[in-house]
Amino acid sequence: xxxxxxxxxxxxxxxxxxxxxxxxxxxxxxxxxxxxxxxxxxxxxxxxxxxxxxxxxxxxxxxxxxxxxxxxxxxxxxxxxxxxxxxxxxxxxxxxxxxxxxxxxxxxxxxxxxxxxxxxxxxxxxxxxxxxxxxxxx
Length: 138
Prior knowledge:
By secondary structure, this protein is of the alpha+beta class. Helices cover 19% and strands 48% of the residues. It folds into 2 domains: 1-30; 31-136, Sandwich (Jelly Rolls), CATH 2.60.120.
């Protein structure tokens, strides 16, 4: 019986290592303090290698998410509060609940809570699933 237990434990350990190595690139980016990202859904698209990802992002007052980009388009819908977005090549814009923003693939951008309450957005990404969802700008 101990041989079977040992084999089972090895199998479980191997599965855990494989799962960890697959998930690690997607989880490698630590969340900045004051920002909460909640994954809502992730689905393959009819275009091979592409996926849609929806995330709720909550940003506390005075907190900013640093300059970054995505391997595809980002569509933002502000749920509550006021968020200031800085998108490369454009003047900063402050959006409030109900406002939307489209960010083209690979465009460097940043977001900052411009209000006095926790602000929230629904971010929808149409991205290349073989690349990290988010890359911090250098």
